Amino acid sequence: MSTGTRRRDARAPTAKLAALAVAAAALAGCATSPQLDAEWRDPQLGGNYLRGARVLVACDAFEVVIRQICQDQLASEVVARGATPVFLAPNFQVATDRSIDAQLLPAAREAGAKAMMVMTVAVAVNDVSPGFSIGVGGFGFGRHSGVGVGVEAPMGGGRVTSGYSANGRVSDVPSGRLVWTAKATAPPSSDLNAQMGELSKAVLGAADKAGLF
Known about the structure:
Elements: H1 3-32, E1 35-41, E2 54-60, H2 64-80, E3 84-86, H3 100-110, E4 115-128, E5 132-135, E6 138-141, E7 150-153, E8 160-172, E9 178-185, H4 192-209
Parallel strand pairs: 2-3, 2-4
Antiparallel strand pairs: 1-9, 4-8, 5-6, 5-7, 8-9
């Protein structure tokens, strides 16, 4: 065997480990970043529509705790973009048999809001998994199914984790007209605070690119 061949062989495990690290990093990124599924913008909408504006912020969710976390995260993103969020009164009642947006318009007008930013969040996918392992030479499922040298990564020990979707939309308050909407979906996670924050960033990030702020 030549010296050059021995050197190539010595580098092979290092190359495999480097490739594994890149793959693991890519998986980690996919596991934490929501994906933008769809977006629509009124072609007649002017630029910087929400910059410096008063915006009624509300979240629509089945669970109260999810609704409040979503609203806090969404309001934080609105503030970060130079707009002023306003909120519904704590005792505001919403009928569940009709669209929430039309019900919010009178409150938005009373609050002097230029627009409404409403986000509906709901479970999109559930994940039940005892964990997985990544090893050099392949992928494995289960607590001890890694092949060769690798890093075992248990995923919750069989617990159910949920991934939420967020449908955000902006309506013009004076006319009641929908002017922009986007939908994003997050992968399953047990950290709902972080998940709502990432979904809010994804939706408002799309609004940035659409020129709303």
